[in-house]
Amino acid sequence: MNETALKPGFLSRSVGPLHINLDRQLYGEGHVQSFQLSEANQSLSAFNQKLFEGGVVNPTENRPASHWALRSTAHTEQTGQSAQLMINGRDELVLVRQVQNHMEAFVEEVRSGRYTTPDGVPYENLLHLGIGGSDLGPRLLNDVFAKLELAEAPALNIQFAANVDFHEMKAALAALNPKTTLVVIASKSFSTRETLHNAQHIFKWLDAAGPQYRAKALVAATCKPSKAVEFGVDPQRVFEFSESVGGRYSLWGPVSIGIRMVHGNAAFNELLKGAALIDQHVRESEASQCIPTLLAMSDLYNLEHGVASLMLSPYDSRLSLLSPYLQQLWMESLGKGVDKNGKVLNKPACPILWGDVGTNGQHAFFQMLHQSRIASSVELIVVVHPNHDEVQSHQVLLSHALAQSEAFSVGRLNAETELNNPEINFRSCPGKRPVQMVFLDSLTPYSLGALLCMWEHRTAALAALQNINPFDQWGVELGKGIAEQLEQSVPPGHAPAENPVTAHLIEHFLYQAGTRE
Ligand SMILES: O=P(O)(O)OC[C@H]1O[C@H](O)[C@H](O)[C@@H](O)[C@@H]1O
After folding, report:
1. Is 363 a known active-site residue?
2. pTM above 0.90, yes or no
3. ipTM here
């Protein structure tokens, strides 16, 4: 007996290194057919056309979304088609190509040791400063690339500092030497408090080693080049990207220049090629064949049926930073309360995305997924060819992923009977959790590019299906504004905060810190 309404293999689709199976969803074939004919699907096709034409898809900021253009050189190489993307009278594709050439040349200079410190020796270290979209992508890429045994060995020791919590910076600096460290300041806006505060600290750290070190060490990735220059970065080492590239969609461009420096241009360009393959797949496939569309269709169906959680578990420890990266992409894009017409939504526009690598999660939170009343879909990623020869370990790993997929969907066959019997109802696993299976041929920069790009399109598709804007993040602004005011109230002896509870909390903090009676 088949546990769901779909025949095995009905929703299996492949593109390049990526394969998905959605047979264990809660809908039947009829849903897929009616979805194809639905108005929502037509709006999605119109959205994708507008996205790739450079139309305004981010209405609250009156901008196109041109992150896909950062992969355009890989697309041109693959298809031989070159195009134009005119935004505000400037061809964005020309900018992308120029900056990419400039980055590649600089990266070669650094990696070959021709770009030297003021003491005439090659740089050995790199500190990446940035937060949110200017941190999570490069951090994920570095973590995966470092575990891939790429043809080119890492050329520099890399450290990251995102948080204004100084513990992170302290640990990063302990592993660095100011005389041999390049500092990448990645900030789309070049005005993020945490990043600029950390950069100011680093200026002091570099200057303490000698006044000559700062100038050559600084590199910036931003869409506000003049601000970076004003801040003290040599214009030769300011790498620009367009304002219409959202921060959480920006890892394909200059924000990842540190990853190019550490792991080489070749690996990075493979990542772009894998992503460009998915762009092409989205441009050319009809809904019933398009992987991101089918996933978004399932996500929407689940939301409409009260499933507002999505647990993502890659059965590969090299992907342990995937969930934190995707949390920003997914929840900053889709965590919205109104649609593009300002209409208040009557349900969440995205499930909460969370998870950890398998099998570890099985021994931690899978219990809740199997038996609690919290409805969650489950997405399991399996890498078919591992990067080791321990066949048995890999088979055990695969068995666990497949077992969980079956258990979440089928449950325990006599679950209903068990529930009617108080003596044994603790055993009941009702099943019927929607399961998405994702297979990657192997983990490479190319397949990673395809996987991440697939998620970008899935995110945008789920937004388009609900007529919401996935490219703004107005909710983030509120706390930033309040924090700016409170910086005046936190130091002892300063004006109290306006809000009485906040004022009380500050009083308590100062008392516990021993700076107030
Ligand atoms: O790159 P930046 O301009 O420094 O912005 C860094 C981050 O800041 C904000 O909090 C936004 O919510 C994020 O989307 C962004 O990635």
Report:
1. yes
2. yes
3. 0.99
